[in-house]
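chain below, 300 aa
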Amino acid sequence: MLLVTGITGHTGKYFLQELINNKYEGPIRCIVRNTSNTSLLDNSGLNIEKVVGDLDDVEFIDKAMDGVKTVLHIYNIHHSSLIVRAAIKRNVKRAILVHTTGIYSEFKHASEGYKKIEQEINELKSDSKNSLEITIVRPSMIYGDLCDRNMSKFIKLVDKLRIMPVINGGNSLIQPVNARDLGKAFFTVLMSPKETNGKNYDLSGEKPLKMIDAYKIISKELNKKTVFLNVPIGLGVVMAKVIKALSLGKVDYIEKVQRMGEDRNYSHKEATIDFGYSPMTFEKGIQIEVQEYIEKHQNS
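prediction:
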């Protein structure tokens, strides 16, 4: 039995498509919410059991683990420790956890919580009494369609603004990964236990690029002539502090602005060696998302 969390979400739906494309034959138990759109699950043709519940409910998670051999936890890193504890209790053989490259950030708010979670998981793994094999995959900035929280915002900004402010001249490096590539990676890891058990992988895009170059590619795909205005990071932080003060602390963009000046590029070499990970180019991936954006606005 395969247990999956987050299968109706952004990357989860691409993992589901891989299961369908590869005619996965084993039983699958999917944790969903009452509000989840399960139409893709219902029409998948796979051997799927849906269980409705809350991942904050320890008793529910414990019951969901009954009879499970492998768990793929896509939904949220903050539930990973709970998932691992329940898996150990129920003698699950293998866990694949989807975490984040945000763990590498030099800024406390962005990384501290992630580091604590992985430290706790390592402590659970070190207990000689359990035999759970754990693989952790860490996607970088995820994009791919308009429900992402990253490039979709940038596409909208480039479309709406003729003059667009860019922190630090957009010189920081990013390496966005397309959700379609993540769906393929999750499936390949699932089917490659011998190669991936007990290992951690960073899953990034094909290669690093500057933030300003990403903006320029988006502008080109939108057929816009955007003027990009450099905003020194120091000035950006000052502006964020002013906004925080004026909002009485309710709006705090300080660390987000600081991270705009931070390089966020990560090697996926180990994933390529171990299971053939080969992500698409940013140019190809963003073209798909921009076209979706254009079609949506033409039809609205």
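DSSP finds 13 helices and 13 strands in the chain. The chain has a mean pLDDT of 94.
thats it, cya
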